[in-house]
Every structure is written in C-alpha cells, then in structure tokens.
Write a structure and sequence with these properties.
- Strand 1 and strand 2 form a beta hairpin.
- The protein is elongated, with a radius of gyration of 22 Å.
- It contains two helices and four strands; from the N terminus they run H-E-E-E-E-H.
- The longest helix is centred in the C-terminal third of the chain and has 33 residues.
- The chain has one domain.
- The strands form two sheets. Strands 1-2 form a two-stranded antiparallel sheet.
- It is α+β, with helices and mostly antiparallel strands.
C-alpha cells in the first residue's frame, strides 16, 4: 500500500461521515414537522456505506476506502396523532408526524462526529510522518 493512499482512505471516511452528519441534522430539524397525509410526511433518512476493496489479492496493496452507495428512507411507520382542532388535520382529525427518533439521531450524531475526528487525526498523523520522512535528508 502506498503511503499516500492513507490520504484517500481518510478523506473518503471524512466525506462519508460529513454526509452522515448532514442527514442527522436534516432528520432532527424535521422531527417536529406536521403534515395532513402519510405521503407528504417527512421520513427519516440514513446513508448506506460500503468498503471499496482494491487489489484484494495483493496483500501489500489491500486498501479500503469508504463508498457512499446512497441514502435510504426509513420504512418505519409515521406517527399518527389525533388532533381534530389542528389546522393540518385530515378529515378524520389526524395529523402525521415523521418517524424520526431523536435519541437515535443524537447517538448517530455523536458517532459520526467521533468518526470524523478520528479520520482527521489519522490524516494529521500521516501528514506529520511524511514531513518527518522528508526531513531525514536534511
């Protein structure tokens, strides 16, 4: 594995965690939104990641980057609440709230933030090692 591929690996991890943090922010900001139908209700979104293995047969060059495969909407049911006096209530008197679990989103936010910080530390350490290697000849 090239010593410079660590920058690609760490960068892909930072990109993935940045997307994850943006989705968590979107989920939390829409957690209290209300709609008058199930179809229009915001659904929790989660990223889908996969490891990209290159040259798996070559043990010395087995590097793994993070690929973002996409974003999926949660299939959990939306929350129906009986509120006949609400202006957004449907004909039956129900309003619909997103299927966002705030506690789960906060845990995702902390995990993504820590992962991002760890990738920054790996990047900084690799940079320092390269700089120290270049200083050997001085």
């Amino acid at each position: 594995m090239s010593s410079f591929s660590i920058f690609d690996i760490s960068g892909s991890g930072m990109n993935a965690q940045s997307l994850r943090l943006n989705l968590v922010a979107s989920n939390i900001s829409n957690a209290n939104s209300v709609s008058s139908s199930i179809d229009q209700t915001y659904k929790s979104r989660q990223p889908v990641f996969a490891a990209e293995l290159k040259n798996i047969m070559d043990k010395q060059n087995a590097a793994s980057k993070v690929n973002v495969l996409g974003v999926v909407e949660s299939q959990a049911p939306t929350v129906m609440e009986y509120a006949p006096n609400h202006p957004m209530a449907d004909q039956s008197g129900y309003i619909y709230k997103p299927n966002v679990n705030i506690v789960e989103e906060m845990a995702n936010m902390m995990s993504a933030s820590r992962s991002y910080q760890n990738n920054v530390e790996v990047l900084n350490t690799a940079k320092e090692l390269v700089l120290q290697t270049l200083r050997i000849g001085q």
